[in-house]
Write a sequence for this structure.
């Protein structure tokens, strides 16, 4: 397993070892001890799968309080995935990291607690899998505006298909500081 640190402290790109031949492939998607050895020490309590059409953008989502760290990867298709540091007091506050995740590259993206997360679908459709360090709680779920000019995210699409919640999301500067996670 290869692990690459990003410019955002705690955000990791993980390339699991993949064993393949003409029949297909095998990959260990999660091993608690192996991932703890690379610094992912949180326990995952919920596993989710979403399927979306090309052009769908989901996010940028976060929970506060009750933050969720996420280990994400794609089992079918291709997505452009983004993590944004929204931790008040962080030296990288408002900065983002992005990666293309696909069924072909098998990469995983670890987005720690305190970050907003989102993705858009590049292929005809995509099946997206993610494990979370905390349970989903609609009462603390928030959405950060995907195209907030202060974030400067270079999304590979201009007019995504959004949920009603995401179309009404706030810019980062419009969130009260006490509604955002804090940097430790």
């Amino acid at each position: 397993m290869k692990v690459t640190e990003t410019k955002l402290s705690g955000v990791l790109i993980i390339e699991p070892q993949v064993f393949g031949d003409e029949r297909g492939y095998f990959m260990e998607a999660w091993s608690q001890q192996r991932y703890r050895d690379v610094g992912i020490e949180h326990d995952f309590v919920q596993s989710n799968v979403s399927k979306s059409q090309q052009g769908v953008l989901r996010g940028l989502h976060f929970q506060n309080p009750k933050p969720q760290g996420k280990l994400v990867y794609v089992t079918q298709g291709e997505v452009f995935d983004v993590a944004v540091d929204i931790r008040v007091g962080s030296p990288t506050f408002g900065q983002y990291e992005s990666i293309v995740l696909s069924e072909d590259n098998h990469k995983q993206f670890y987005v720690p607690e305190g970050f907003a997360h989102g993705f858009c679908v590049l292929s005809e459709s995509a099946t997206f899998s993610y494990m979370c360090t905390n349970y989903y709680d609609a009462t603390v779920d928030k959405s950060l505006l995907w195209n907030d000019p202060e974030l400067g995210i270079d999304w590979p699409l201009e007019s995504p298909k959004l949920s009603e919640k995401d179309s009404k999301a706030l810019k980062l500067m419009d969130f009260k500081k006490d509604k955002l996670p804090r940097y430790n």
Summary: Residues 80 and 100 are 5 Å apart (CA to CA). The mean pLDDT is 97. The chain has one domain: 2-179. Residues 2-179 form a domain with the Jelly Rolls fold (CATH 2.60.120.10).
